[in-house]
Amino acid sequence: MFPSLTRSLVSKAAPLYPIVSRNPALGTVIQRFSFDSKNVIDKTLSTAQEGFEKFSSLSIKERGDLLKNLANVLESRIDKLAELATVEMGKPIVESEAEVKKCAWVLRHFAETSEAFLKPVPVETDAQDSHIVYQPLGVVFGIFPWNFPFWQVYRAIAPSMMVGNVYIMRHAQNVPMCALAIEETFKLAGFPDGALQNSFCSIPTLHEMLEDPRVKATSLTGSVGAGASLAAKAGSVLKKAVLELGGSDPFIVLKDADLELAVDNAVAGRLLNSGQSCIAAKRFIVEKDILKPFTEAFVEKMGRVKIGNPMSRSVRVGPIARKDLMLGLHDQVLRSIEQGAKVLIGGTPMNRKGFFYPVTVLTDVNEENTAFTEELFGPVAPIIVAQDADDAVRLANKSDFGLGSSVFTKDIEKGKEIALRLEAGQAFVNNFVKSDPRLPFGGVKKSGYGRECSQHALFEFANVKTIWVK
């Protein structure tokens, strides 16, 4: 039913099978896959176009019923899907289970709420009848990352499918088995052929697919470089794109903050998904009056976190998803140290099988330091001192990114005022940043553009059409 976790095809020649499923906790190859041929890709595109004709003809209620079926499929297979994510990209098993449950939530949310937002909207004009309707664009080409291999996909497709679009999915090359499992869930839920298809396309072929007239729009969650490249290509063929490109989220702790609450959220916000989350707290900006007690409590709690086999229910931090990512993270730490940062705990790759990096806390990090200017995708937490609340806001906004942000203070009105000043798509007061199907998700600056989740996501890939009758 779902891809086997034990079947091994490691004897296949690596150059011919460049898509590699590898267990990051062990460093061992599970299975290899080849890129799709041009004939296969053409068939995928044709099937998607045919699927769009069928799927878009369904009523909103019928599409919603299919999404509810899909949610039921996920919940009935949560153990298998969660294990697949943990084995293939290293997410702690408890978090993998939570991810699958959240996917079911987002599917049901849009199944139950979309119709109210997609109804024709009458507008009073000098016409006999004038109103707005929302129609699908067609085939959307979605490019997805490995860090939340299920959530990123279902979150993106749920609102778009309620409008009537269909998807071709190009998943990250290190989670091919998750991609195949996602494709299978749509079949089990009874979606028509072509509603969602996986494509093992190469990067050059990806651009060719975007040029194909059967593809009407695209979305990408990934790096700034990948987003810029895709945006340039989409722009050259005048196709709509939605981009979510990560962040370097500020986590502000003001001097009047509840220290225990701030520390608990700092640990949770930094270590979610072993630190490999676009909305993880990544720059801890602490007002000088509370710097010492916060640092001491934060280091003590971070130091007690259990790292190890992600299949263990007691483990909080698993491996980094790939070796190159681990080495890149360590390079950032080394450069930060060279530039004056001090290591309070961690700072060296762990001497064990797999791609494990220890929980690391850096201090004496200034605004020119690598740990401040670059996104750290792993369990590394730099602490930056702010002179006062205004300085904290200045430091928070001194970033190329603008995805999430949070501020901790007992003065709720002050927290709200600072939230409005933060240059980010999300600003949380007294909590670390979380995505929620009911609220828009996306960023500003180099964190991308467009929104997923909430009613705003419904209109990203919709033809918002004016109907005017004399």
Automatic annotation (TrEMBL):
One Pfam family here: Aldedh
Entries under CDD domains matching the protein: ALDH_SSADH1_GabD1
Keyword Oxidoreductase attributed: yes
Domain Aldehyde dehydrogenase residue range list: 20-467
MF term (GO), any: succinate-semialdehyde dehydrogenase (NAD+) activity
Key words, A-Z: NADP, Oxidoreductase
InterPro entries documented for this protein: Ald_DH/histidinol_DH (IPR016161), Ald_DH_C (IPR016163), Ald_DH_CS_CYS (IPR016160), Ald_DH_N (IPR016162), Aldehyde_DH_dom (IPR015590), ALDH_GabD1-like (IPR044148), GABD/Sad-like (IPR047110)
Similarity section: Belongs to the aldehyde dehydrogenase family.
PANTHER family per record: SUCCINATE SEMIALDEHYDE DEHYDROGENASE [NAD(P)+] SAD
Identification of the protein by name: Succinate semialdehyde dehydrogenase NADP
Organism of derivation: Stygiella incarcerata
Lineage of producing organism: Eukaryota, Discoba, Jakobida, Andalucina, Stygiellidae
Gene behind this protein: SSADH
